Amino acid sequence: NAGTKADVYISVCGERGDKGPRQLLRSQKSKKFLKGQTDIFAVEAVHLGHLYKIVIGHNGLGSGNGWFLVKVVIKDPITDLDYTFLCHRWLDQGQGDGNIARELPVTGASTFPGRQELELKREETWAAEKWKFQKGITLQFYNSITCGFIFLYPDSRVDALGDKKNKYDKAFSMWMYA
Length: 178
Description:
Layout: E1 8-14, E2 17-18, E3 22-23, E4 51-58, E5 67-76, E6 81-91, E7 101-105, H1 113-129, E8 139-143, E9 148-152, E10 158-163
Antiparallel strand pairs: 1-2, 1-3, 1-4, 4-7, 5-6, 8-9, 9-10
């Protein structure tokens, strides 16, 4: 359910202005905006110079109109440059922050694309790992320098004395090496 049948619009902004919102109509695929699919569109516009952001969204119409957008890549045929705009978010009134449009800055060498991707991965990792920090769970870490265990208890106590003995079944321990 990560694709959409809603009408998708994009506005591209560059150093010479923007081209205003344009509906993405004809993909090279027979059905556009399906989960896991890369769609390619040809959009005619005046040359905008170096691009710095896009605004992309949909009209929210139709059942199941929510859409998970990974990224947009714009290939400039005049300069032969590729501009990447990372999203990794839902455009869905019922998911996340409820927005169906996003303003995305260009990702380039000067904006540390790896850092942006790491931040997005951090959010995904927290979503997958936050169960470990729920009420009632004791975490046990092993420090390879002190060769001892550190415990984080459900009542917010921390035992960082570096106990050499494993207090819990290894199957439920988290081993962190520092």
